[in-house]
Amino acid sequence: MTTRTGVLAALPAGHREKLMHLAHDVAFPIATRIFDEGGRADRFWIIRTGSVTLDVRVPGRCAATVETLGGGDLLGWSWLIPPHRWHLGAEAASPVRAEEFDAAAVRALCVDDPVLGQALAVFVAGAVGHRLRSTRTRLLDLYGPYGSGPLR
Hints:
Helix 3 (103-112) crosses helix 4. This protein has one domain: Jelly Rolls. The chain is of the alpha+beta class. The longest helix is centred in the last third of the chain and has 30 residues, at 114-143. A four-stranded antiparallel sheet has the order 1-8-3-6. The N and C termini lie far apart (41 Å). The protein has four helices and eight strands.
C-alpha cells in the first residue's frame, strides 16, 4: 500500500486519479533554476524525490532562501491565484524528480469538478499560509535586529 502525503493526501481517491491523469514526469539537475520571482506561473509540481529551495529577492542583497521542500511537497502555488506570477523563486538543491502539471489544465479541471477544486484550493491556501510564515521568520532571522523571536 502506498502512503500519500501532501496535496495527494488532501484529495479524495477519485479526485487524486483525475489530477494525476494530467501529470507528467520531469527531472531537474542540481542547481537548476526552476522558476524566478515575478515570472509567469503556468505550471506546478509535486516533488517525488530531491529537494528544492525557495528564495525571495532582497533589494541590495543576494536572494534569501526561505524554505526547503522535499518529497511529497507541492512546489508552486501562484498558478492558482491571479495574476499567476511567482511570488518566490525556486532552485533544485539536489537532483529532483517530480510530477509536473499544466496550470491551465488543472484550473479547468477544478471548474469542471468543484469538489476537487475546493479540496485543492483549501490545500493551496494552507501552503500559502505556511510559506508566508516561513518567509517572515527567515527574513527576520537574517535581517531583523533581534531575530524572529516568538510569534504572537
